[in-house]
TrEMBL record:
It comes from Dioszegia hungarica. Belongs to the dihydroxyacetone kinase (DAK) family. Catalyzes both the phosphorylation of dihydroxyacetone and of glyceraldehyde. This is Dihydroxyacetone kinase 1. The keyword Hydrolase does not apply. Residues 386-587 form the DhaL domain. Pathway: Polyol metabolism; glycerol fermentation; glycerone phosphate from glycerol (oxidative route): step 2/2. GO terms for molecular function: ATP binding; glycerone kinase activity; triokinase activity. Residues 10-351 form the DhaK domain. GO terms for cellular component: cytosol. PROSITE patterns: DHAK, DHAL. Keywords: ATP-binding, Glycerol metabolism, Kinase, Nucleotide-binding, Transferase. The active site is at residue 222.
Length: 592
C-alpha cells in the first residue's frame, strides 16, 4: 500500500471509528464518544487510578492499554494533537478515586499544558488529588538544545504507567505511585530511527526528504525530523549506533541515564515498531540488540518487542532501555521489585506477550554436545561397514551420472530442476562421507546425517520428502536397536524401509499408481522382505518405467498437459531418481 493511501470512512471520523472498534474488541471498556475517552469502570475497592493520553496515531498507545493492570482511562486527541482540557477533565471524572489519580503522559508542549491545566482545575474544584508525571525518555536531543522543553516522551512511557499501575494494584498510595513513576523516568533512555516519514490521513502527500538508502536518527513520533541523516546499513550497524548513544556516559550533553558500563548494569529492553516494520524484521532487531548488550556485559533481564507506540505507518523503530536498580542504591527500589511490578498480570488489546524471565541462549557448542550424546544412546552396526559405505557411494554416483537424463525428463514433465536437486543431495552425502560425518559404524547415526544433508542441500519438495523418509528409516532402526538388534540384518532393513514409507505417507497424499516417486518406492518395500535387494530393485525399475503410461495424480506432473505427457513417453523424474538410487545399492546383500 502506498504511504499516502489509507483505509477509512473520512479523516474526520477516523479516531472515533477506531475507538468504537476498540470497544467492540474489548467489552470490558467503555467509550465516552463526545469527549473521546476510553475507560474501564472502577472496581468496588478504591485504588489509585492511572490515566494517560495524547494525540491519536500512536496506537495501541494509549487507548489500547486500558485494562486490568494497566490504564484506567485514555484521553484521545486528533491525530498527533493533544486532547483539550474539557476532554481530560471528563476522563478524570470517569475514573476518579478517593485514593487519587496519577496522569502519566509524554513530554510534549500541548500535553504538558492541557493535562497540567486539567489537573490543576480538578484539584482547585476540591474534587480530589490528581498528579501529573511527564515522561521524557528520548536521548536524541542534548541537554543544551532541550534545556527548556526537556526530553521528548517516547515508548518508555508505556513502562512507566505499567509500573505505577502494578504498584497501585498492590495497594500503593498516590505518593508511592508518583514517586515510582518519577524514578522510572530517570532510568529510561529511548532512541528512534525512521526510514521515511509517515502520511497523516486528510493531508496532502509530501515528498520524501530521505534518499533511498538513508535513514534519520532521532526521528520523533509526530513526523519531526531526526537529529541527523545516515547511510542505511545492516541491522547490527543500526542497533550499534542506537544503543551506543543510550548507554554512553562520556558525552555529558546526551548522558541521561546513569549507566556504569562496568559489567554491573542490568536492563529491560523494549524494541518498539513505529508502524511499518514487519515482524520478521523486528525479530532480527531483537536478536542484534540482545547480542549487543551481552557483548557490552549489560545483563538483559527482560525483553519486550512489538508495536507499543507507533507513528501511524512510519517505517522505523525505537529501542528503549530501562536501567534497573543496583544492589546498594539509595533510592529504595530493588531490581527484583521493579521486575515483579513489570511482570504483574495485565490485560489489554495493546499489551504484548513477553517472557517474564531472563532471555536464555543455548550455545551452538552445547547443542552439538547434546545432539552427539543423543545420537550415541544406541548403536546399530552394519554387518559390513565397508560394504555399507560402498553402497551409499555407488547410489550417490548413480544419481550424479543420471543428472542429465533426470533434468531432461523434468523439463518435459515438471519445472526442470529434478536432476540438479538430486545431484546436490548426492554430492552432499559424498562430502559427509569424506568429512567423516558418515562413518559406517552406526547406521542410526549415519541415516540421521543423511536426513539432515538432503534437507539442507536438496531443499524444496524433494528435499523434504527424502528427509522425512530417512527420518522414518532412522526411527525404525533405533526401535530395532532398543529391542535388542545388534546389527542390520535383511529383516531389520526390510522393516525399516516399510516403516519409513508409512512415515512418508503421513505427509503426502500420493499413493501408487500416481506417477510419483512413491510408485517405485512402494514396489521396492513390498518386494524387499521376500525377494531381497536386487530383485526388489528390479520391481522398482518396472514401477518407474510404468509411470510413462500413467496420468499424474500428484506431484509436478499433475499440472502439465497429460495427453502430451503420455505421447512423450517420459517417466516421472522423481520415480526415475528413486530407481537410480536403488540400482546403485545393488551388491549390498547383507548376510545373516
Amino acid at each position: 500500500m502506498s504511504a499516502h493511501k489509507h483505509v477509512l470512512n473520512t479523516p474526520q471520523t477516523l479516531v472515533v471509528d477506531s475507538l468504537k472498534g476498540l470497544v467492540a474488541l474489548n467489552p470490558n471498556i467503555k467509550l465516552d464518544e463526545a469527549q473521546r475517552v476510553i475507560y474501564r469502570p472502577t472496581g468496588a475497592e478504591p485504588r489509585v487510578t492511572l490515566l494517560s493520553g495524547g494525540g491519536s496515531g500512536h496506537e495501541p498507545a494509549h487507548a489500547g492499554f486500558v485494562g486490568p493492570g494497566l490504564l484506567d482511562a485514555a484521553i484521545c486527541g486528533n491525530i498527533f494533537a493533544s486532547p483539550n482540557v474539557a476532554q481530560i477533565r471528563r476522563g478524570i471524572d470517569l475514573v476518579s478515586s478517593p485514593k487519587g489519580s496519577l496522569v502519566v503522559v509524554m513530554n510534549y508542549t500541548g500535553d504538558a499544558l492541557h493535562f497540567g491545566l486539567a489537573a490543576e482545575q480538578y484539584r482547585a474544584g476540591g474534587k480530589g488529588d490528581v498528579r501529573v508525571v511527564m515522561v521524557g525518555d528520548d536521548v536524541a536531543v542534548g541537554k543544551v538544545q532541550g534545556s527548556i522543553v526537556g526530553r521528548r516522551g517516547l515508548a518508555g512511557t508505556i513502562l512507566v504507567y505499567k509500573l505505577a499501575s502494578a504498584l497501585s494494584d498492590k495497594g500503593g498510595d498516590l505518593d508511592e505511585c508518583e514517586k515510582l513513576a518519577r524514578y522510572a523516568c530517570t532510568r529510561l533512555g529511548t532512541l528512534g530511527i525512521g526510514l521515511d516519514h509517515c502520511h497523516v490521513p486528510g493531508t496532502k502527500s509530501g515528498e520524501s526528504h530521505l534518499g533511498e538508502n538513508e535513514f534519520e536518527l532521532g526521528m520523533g513520533i509526530h513526523n519531526e525530523s531526526g537529529t541527523s541523516k545516515h547511510a542505511l546499513g545492516t541491522t547490527a550497524e543500526l542497533v550499534d549506533q542506537m544503543l551506543s548513544k543510550i548507554v554512553d556516559t562520556t558525552d555529558t550533553d546526551r548522558s541521561f541515564v546513569p549507566f556504569q558500563n562496568d559489567g554491573s548494569d542490568e536492563v529491560v529492553l523494549l524494541v518498539n515498531g513505529l508502524g511499518a516494520v514487519s515482524e520478521l524484521e523486528m525479530g532480527g532487531i531483537v536478536n542484534e540488540a540482545n547480542k549487543w548488550l551481552a557483548g557490552k556485559k549489560i545483563k538483559v533481564r527482560r525483553i519486550m518487542s512489538g508495536a507499543f507506540m507507533t507513528s501511524l505507518s512510519m517505517p522505523g523503530f525505537s529501542l528503549t532501555l530501562l536501567l534497573l536498580p543496583r544492589s546498594g542504591d539509595k533510592d529504595g527500589y530493588s531490581s527484583d521489585q521493579i521486575l515483579s511490578l513489570l511482570d504483574a498480570p495485565a490485560s489489554a488489546p495493546g499489551w504484548k506477550y513477553y517472557a517474564a524471565t531472563e532471555p536464555g541462549v543455548v550455545s551452538e557448542e552445547k547443542e552439538a554436545v547434546a545432539h552427539a550424546q543423543a545420537a550415541k544412546e544406541v548403536d546399530l552396526a552394519p554387518l559390513d561397514s565397508n560394504a555399507f559405505l560402498a553402497a551409499i557411494t555407488r547410489a550417490c554416483h548413480a544419481l550424479i551420472e543420471a543428472e542429465p537424463e533426470l533434468t531432461k525428463q523434468d523439463q518435459i514433465a515438471g519445472d526442470g530442476d529434478a536432476g540438479l536437486t538430486l545431484e546436490a543431495g548426492a554430492k552432499g552425502i559424498l562430502n559427509a562421507i569424506k568429512d567423516g560425518k558418515i562413518k559406517g559404524q552406526n547406521v542410526i547415526e549415519d541415516v540421521g546425517v543423511i536426513a539432515e544433508v538432503v534437507e539442507e542441500d536438496m531443499g524444496g519438495t524433494s528435499g523434504a520428502l527424502y528427509s522425512i523418509f530417512f527420518a522414518g528409516l532412522g526411527r525404525s532402526l533405533r526401535e530395532a536397536a532398543t529391542s535388542g538388534s545388534k546389527s542390520t540384518t535383511p529383516e531389520v532393513w526390510a522393516k525399516a524401509a516399510s516403516d519409513a514409507q508409512e512415515t512418508l505417507y503421513k505427509y503426502t497424499r500420493a499413493r501408487p499408481p500416481s506417477r510419483t516417486l512413491v510408485d517405485p518406492l512402494d514396489a521396492f518395500t513390498a518386494s524387499l522382505p521376500s525377494k531381497g535387494l536386487s530383485s526388489a530393485a528390479d520391481d522398482a525399475y518396472a514401477a518407474a518405467e510404468k509411470t510413462k503410461e500413467l496420468v499424474a495424480k500428484a506431484g509436478r506432473g499433475a499440472y502439465v498437459n497429460q495427453e502430451d505427457l503420455k505421447k512423450r513417453e517420459v517417466p516421472d523424474p522423481g520415480a526415475w531418481g528413486v530407481w537410480r538410487i536403488l540400482d546403485g545399492l545393488r551388491g549390498y546383500e547383507a548376510k545373516k
